[in-house]
């Protein structure tokens, strides 16, 4: 998975002054120390996504959210924000992780969209998916709609949970791009300064060890589902990249783990450098 990932539309926008300079400084030092040059390009791509995300709140620029047709067989990096930046998805609500993972499993089976990675933050979520049938819009509408209705029912409230604009999409064209997006998505809580490692995040997050696995998620015992006709359980599978299906899954996990570890270390160092630069 070497080399720098290439995207049809690379997230762009104003650089963020001293914070971006801190990222670049840590990158220059960290990439030299990384040793494994095969990963250097993907680490740098992931870190650039992290830096861009901090300037926007999410990785995908506004123009990426405009409606456009999706072709089958596409790998997408997706993101959506909560309405007005409200913290409706905070992991402090212990039932949210099970709700998210259950609805991901239901929507994946219904629309044939393969989940490659995911992370739910308090004010937004990220997904990396493979869309063989061109059903990504219906898939995300299902997930957002079901999660919103369940959240509102549990909190006894009305009103939007997610922004009404379309889910932001970036097409990921290569395995290297997939690796960079995977690491960026999983490292989100680390980049935000909430945890030291992604595995410590209490919210829903995909890890390299989950790639190539599937598990059964029970239907949440929430108000919304008391009279639901949805299945009592759903299977959530985390797939490797479609071009890596002939590679031993242990090798894919090993490379993603190395990339994530480097990204976490650099993200933490960059954040500390940025904070020190504002003191």
Q: How would you explain this protein's 3D organization?
A:
43% of the residues lie in helices and 14% in strands. It is an alpha+beta fold. The strands form 2 sheets. The chain has a 4-stranded antiparallel β-sheet, with helices on both faces. The chain has a two-stranded antiparallel ribbon with strand order 5-6. Helix 1 packs across helix 7. It is globular. The N terminus is likely disordered.
Radius of gyration: 18 Å
Main pleated-sheet profile: 4 strands, antiparallel
Mean pLDDT: 78
Shape: globular
- Count of individual beta strands: 6
- Global structural class: alpha+beta
Placed side by side, the strands forming the largest sheet appear as 2-3-1-4
Report the uncertain regions: 1-20, 29-37, 54-70
What's this, in brief?
The chain has helices at 17-34, 37-56, 95-111, 136-155, 175-186, 188-191, 249-278, and strands at residues 74-81, 114-120, 124-131, 168-171, 213-218, 233-238. With 279 residues, it is α+β, with helices and mostly antiparallel strands.
Key words describing this protein structure:
alpha+beta; four-stranded antiparallel beta sheet; disordered N terminus; 43% helix; two-stranded antiparallel ribbon; 279 residues
């Amino acid at each position: 998975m070497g080399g720098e990932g290439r995207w049809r539309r690379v997230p762009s926008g104003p650089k963020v002054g001293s914070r971006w300079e801190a990222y670049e400084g840590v990158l220059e030092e960290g990439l030299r120390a990384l040793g494994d040059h095969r990963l250097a390009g993907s680490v740098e791509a992931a870190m650039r996504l992290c830096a861009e995300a901090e300037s926007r709140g999410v990785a995908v620029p506004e123009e990426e959210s405009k409606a456009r047709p999706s072709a089958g067989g596409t790998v997408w990096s997706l993101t959506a924000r909560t309405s007005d930046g409200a913290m409706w998805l905070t992991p402090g609500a212990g039932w949210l992780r099970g709700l998210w993972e259950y609805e991901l499993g239901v929507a994946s089976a219904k629309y044939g969209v393969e989940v490659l990675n995911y992370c739910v933050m308090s004010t937004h979520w990220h997904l990396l998916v493979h869309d063989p049938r061109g059903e990504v819009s219906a898939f995300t509408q299902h997930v957002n709609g079901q999660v919103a209705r369940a959240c509102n029912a549990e909190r006894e409230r009305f009103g939007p949970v997610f922004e009404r604009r379309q889910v932001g999409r970036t097409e990921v064209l290569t395995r290297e791009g997939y690796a960079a997006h995977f690491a960026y998505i999983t490292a989100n809580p680390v980049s935000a300064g909430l945890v030291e490692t992604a595995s410590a995040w209490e919210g829903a997050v995909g890890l390299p060890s989950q790639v190539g696995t599937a598990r059964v998620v029970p239907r949440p015992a929430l108000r919304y589902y008391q009279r639901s006709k949805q299945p009592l359980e759903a299977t959530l599978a985390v797939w490797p990249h479609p071009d890596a299906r002939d590679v031993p899954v242990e090798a894919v996990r090993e490379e993603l783990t190395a990339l994530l570890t480097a990204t976490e270390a650099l993200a933490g160092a960059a954040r500390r450098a940025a904070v020190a630069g504002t003191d």
